[in-house]
Amino acid sequence: MTENQKEYLVGVINPTNRPETRETDLDEKLPPNIRFVSRTLNFTRGTEEEFAASMPAYEANVAEFASMKADLIRPSGAPPFMLLGFDGEQQTIQGWEKKYGIPMFTSGQNHVRALKTLGVRKLVGASYFPAKMNGVFTRYFSEAGFDVLAMEGIAVAFADVPKLPAAQVYEHITGMLEKHREVEGVYLLGSAWKVLEIIDPLEKASGLPVVHPGPARNWEMLMRLGFRQGVAGYGRLLAEMPQPVPLY
Fold first, then answer.
1. Are the C-beta atoms of residues 30 and 1 closer than 8 Å to each other?
2. pLDDT digits (tens, 9 = 90+) for 180-198
């Protein structure tokens, strides 16, 4: 990825400060002329109440990155914005883009765009959140035009998510696929679990595209910044670098 030599600054707002969630292997394969500046909101409970109160903190960080003249801003963390609903999230981001003059995209917008780009309409989703939040996620993707066949969480304490064995997540997903034969794609919600290694094997075994937050956000970021060469080993989306389709 050396064809684009311009220097870029990307502002990233992370939901937690867990260092073990950094996708080291994937991050090291990104172009060296992209510089990241990160801020964290330090979510610790992973509750609806904690997420719902976070918009002012997100916007404060957006304003800081705008003052740095960032080329792109990524307000990460799907649940806080999904609570706004698909249209509400879109209105919020469009308002910030107009106010601060910097392009940006949330995790949810990115996941919707990735799934639509891969031609997925019927999906199963896996998360590490309880049933109430999975209901929020299901509503969000339904509003975005998807048929959500299942959105099932793995029971785990929020702080312990990075310790989940990737093999357990793989089994969780294959169990859902057995129950929903008409599915067209797999969605993994959340960046905290360390499951990059299962994306390619799962795609090969199921014949279905898999959208994981890490490869998905890097695919969209690279496309927006003018990079077209993909990164193999993390699923079809990032390897093939298809042109993103509109959200609506």
1. yes
2. 999 999 999 998 899 999 9
Distances, alpha carbon 45 to alpha carbons 15, 24, 41, 63, 157, in Å: 11, 25, 12, 25, 9
Burial class for 46, CB neighbours closer than 10 Å (0-12, 13-18, 19+): buried
144-155: pLDDT as tens digits: 999 999 999 999
Q: How many residues in total does the chain contain?
A: 248
Q: Which two tokens stand for residue 22?
A: 């950094």
Answer yes or no: pTM beyond 0.90. Answer: yes
- Structure confidence at residue 3 (pLDDT): 59
Query: d(Cα 150, Cα 124) in Å, to the nearest integer?
Result: 5
- Separation between Cα atoms, residue 58 and residue 42, nearest integer Å: 11
- DSSP 8-state symbol, 141: H
β-pairing verdict for 185-188 and 147-153: unpaired
Q: Using CA atoms, how far apart are residues 102 and 190, in angstroms rounded to an integer?
A: 25
CA–CA separation, 193 and 14 (whole Å): 14
Q: Per-residue pLDDT for 52 more than 90?
A: no
Taking residues 200-222, what's their average pLDDT? 97
According to DSSP, the residues that pair with 147 across neighbouring strands are 122
CA dihedral 84, 86, 91, 97 (to 10 degrees): 100
